[in-house]
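Journal club prep — side note

Before the paper discussion, L.F. wants everyone to see what a predicted structure for a comparable chain looks like in token form. Sequence:
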Amino acid sequence: MRCRLLLTGLCTFFAFSVSLAAQDQSPTKPPVRVGVLGLDNYQGVAYAQLFNSPKAEGDLAGLKVVAAYPIGSDDLPNEAKDIPKWKAQIGKFGVEMVDSVEELLKRSDVIMIMTMDARHHLKQVEPVLRAGKPVYIGRPLAASLDDAIAIFKLAEETKTPCWSSSQHRFSPGFSGMKNHPEVGKVMGCDVYGGCSSDPSTQEFFWSALHSIETLYAIMGPGVVSVTCTSTPTAEQFTAVWADGRVGTYRGIKPGQGTVKYSATVFGDKGVSTAGIYGHGVPVAGIVPTKDKYMGYEGIAIEMAKFYKGGPAPVTPAETIELFTFLQAAQDSKAAGGKSVRLDEVAKQRALRIGK
């Protein structure tokens, strides 16, 4: 009897060992293959460095940038001239160059669109969406509100996940202010940052976008009206939320000194300065500057979760509201500082295109 029990135990142990060995020899899950469409700026290089690093761990692990279609725009010559530099840098991470969108789609599971000229994003994203490849579009999503809406409409029609955001939204010093212990429930926010522009895009759809993303990261959606006060030194937006909260943006124009991106946050428990872009939240009013600088890593983590099948971290509805906000600010400036309602901007657009 004892021998039989011993034999049974040995057989069980042997079967368990074989099972473990089989698991150890099972093929590793292949990484999600990422393709880069556009290489006229540093962003694609930054994400390739993060995703392709042999030290990548956590959410950043399990992805690999495999190919890039290195196009730019003839209308942005300053960016286009840097393409050879970015090709060389991204090539150091094992990324191969392709000569067509079709070839990029064949090699990739997911796509990031990194071209700087947002006027081309609608055209560039169409074959990606029709191929069913989840896509992140680098800022700015579009050069106009109409194009922004058209992109998300096409994504809905093709049932393909799509999103866009400034990296500022996921900087820990900004996103961490929503639940900051010294602030409590956010009642208002004043953000500030650079306000340069580019001829390819409406004035406020360029660098002002970064600060408005910060405002939304801290305050959330729900804006009903925007007023713009414009002077030679600054663009000042005042936005009113549906629940009566007020948020502002001070856009610092070129030539007005060194520009940092930050904010002051008002809450039901207190008032605090936000972190500076790339750094963490302040502690007892002191903004850390010797902590780990996140840079593109915050948004790269969100992209990685999305590319692995997670939901878009910013909804189409919120992004469309944000672009409507920017258009309302543009309309307010054109009207000499008149308050412009976002629902009126949406209504005018509907009348213009016959919807």
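L.F.'s comment for the group: DSSP finds twelve helices and 13 strands in the chain. Keep this in mind when we get to the figures.
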